[in-house]
Amino acid sequence: MSKNAILQIDGKSYELPILKGTENEVALDISSLRSATNGVITYDPGFKNTGSCKSAITFLDGEKGILRYRGYSIEDLAENSNFLEVAYLIIFGELPTKDQFEKFENDVKGQAILNEEMKNIINGFPRSAHPMGMLSSLTSALTAFNPSPVNVKSEADMYNAIVKILGKFQVLVAWVYAKNQGTPRNYADYNLDYVSNIMQMLFRIPIKKYTVNPIAAKALDKLLILHEDHEQNCSTSTVRIVGSSEAGLFASLSAGVSALWGRLHGGANQAVIEMLEQINKDGGDVEKYILKAKDPNDPFRLMGFGHRVYKNFDPRAKIIKAAADDVLAELHVKDPILKIARHLEEVALKDDYFVSRKLYPNVDFYSGIIYKALGIPSEMFTVMFALGRLPGWIAQWREMRLNVEPIGRPRQLYVGQTLRPYKTLNKR
Ligand code: CMC
Predict the structure, then answer these.
(1) What is the DSSP string of 202-251?
(2) In angstroms, what is the span from residue 306 Cα to ligand 1's centroid?
(3) In what side-by-side order are the strands of the sheet with 12-20?
């Protein structure tokens, strides 16, 4: 392949450099297009064809169903690693040595405490507040309690900020849940690993002894690993673009939580379970909902189906589907929703509407079934997704700041009114 592409506009030729990634991905470098052409820009709503950065964190091939963090396959990591180790890998680029991991784990544990005044903020929310709204506000509020900006060039400063947010975010998740449930807020237990700690903070109540079920903890660990990063998706791009203005880490992460909340992104896991429950309540008529999803005049979409980049299968969905079967069997949970999910998937995968548009189950299609089996209510599903995605957001924010990327500021194609004179009120 040649080194440059030729673009012709109004009979004039412009050379655009062709860039290649380590997995042979090809990109046209248009960074000088506007100045070279005197004002021509590219138009790409939803950035479907636009690479916003160079990144060394996650590789994804949507056609082949490949997902790798720092070169390790998602299947390998989900089977053999744990959430915190993968977090280290994603953020720092290499798997930790035994000593590095022990230090990292202890440092994160040492930060799993919140300023007691955070409780005043939580108390101010109505009980009906959505946990994602609370989580976004509380993540931003951490800035108020940690006002010094992070010096990204200082390894020590950056490390401290990373262990701080990893430690404190899990407590925020648990306290948001406690608010939602009206239960007492729990503190972290230094003797437990990251995922077991989350579970005891979520589920322990003072009047009962609580022991972490290792099967449930393993399932949750796997789910969280699968969610850790996903290159330049909506929430990650949000974190990078907010951070590109030199807004702080916590403020940028808070924006990421808000972006994740939407039904087309992380909010789909809650929407899936609500959809499956609705179908169940409606007598389990799967075909009726398939027809609704196909009807261009009906806004209903099959939640948990389709993906911007996966056009064959979502490798995370494959792992989660198998995990859902195992978890439900191991925890002896019989959930009619699983049967409906399987039936819906089977019908959709044979239907020309879904096949021709390459719509397959995504990560969110089965994750809610596992969360439900673990006793997590549906309003908390996206919060769990946020907990999983946190290391990815941190890694991408850090990479963006270390690369010294320019402030994110897209252009537009103006289609509004041309210049017109102001009319006084009595002439309108
Ligand atoms: N149900 C029915 N039709 C669909 C669906 C669906 N779930 N998804 C896409 N389509 C149709 C869409 O109507 C369009 O049809 P047509 O060509 O006739 O206009 C075609 O498929 C292409 O869809 P699109 O909206 O242009 O594709 P996109 O890449 O912009 O959207 C998506 C991707 C994930 C937002 C979309 O597939 C969707 O809304 N899915 C349901 C929500 C969901 O499950 N989101 C979770 C994504 S995975 C978790 C994460 O990382 O965020």
Answers:
(1) HH--TTS-----HHHHHHHHHHHHHTS--SS-HHHHHHHHHHTTT--HHH
(2) 5
(3) 4-9, 12-20, 26-28
pLDDT one-digit tens code per residue, 332-370: 888 888 889 989 999 999 999 999 999 999 988 989 889
Residue with tokens 């939803």: 46
- Cα of 372 vs centre of ligand 1, distance in Å, is 24
Residue 46: which of 310, 395, 309, 356 has the closest Cα?
Answer: 309
Q: Which residues line ligand 1 (CB under 6 A)?
A: 46, 230, 233, 264-266, 268, 293, 301-308, 357, 359, 362-364
Tell me the β-bridge partners of 26: 20
How confident is residue 3, by pLDDT bands cut at 50, 70 and 90? confident
- Residue nearest to ligand 1 atom 26, measured at CA: 308
- Rounded distance, CA 57 to CA 69, Å? 6
Q: For residue 1, what pLDDT is reported?
A: 65
Q: How far away, in angstroms, is 134 Cα from ligand 1 center?
A: 27
- Residue of 291, 302, 356 best suited for mutating to test ligand 1, as the one with most atoms within 8 Å of CB: 302
Given a cut of 80, is residue 271 above it in pLDDT? yes
Which amino acids are annotated catalytic? 307, 364
Assigned token pair, 91: 């953020």
The residue among 3, 24, 6 whose CA lies nearest residue 15 is 6
User: 174-221: per-residue pLDDT in tens?
Assistant: 999 999 999 999 999 999 999 999 999 999 999 999 999 998 999 999
- What φ, ψ does residue 228 adopt, rounded to 5°? -60, -40
Residue 30 pLDDT exceeds 70 = yes
Measure 305 CA to ligand 1 centroid, in angstroms. Answer: 7
List, for residues 76-135, the tens digit of each pLDDT value: 999 999 999 999 999 999 999 999 999 999 999 999 999 999 999 999 999 999 999 999
Q: Which of 235, 208, 240 is nearest to 405 (CA)?
A: 240
Strands 12-20 and 58-61: unpaired
- Ligand 1 atom at shortest distance from the alpha carbon of 306: 37
Q: Which amino acid is at 166?
A: L
Query: Distance between CA 383 and CA 257 in Å, rounded?
Result: 8
pTM (predicted TM-score):
0.94
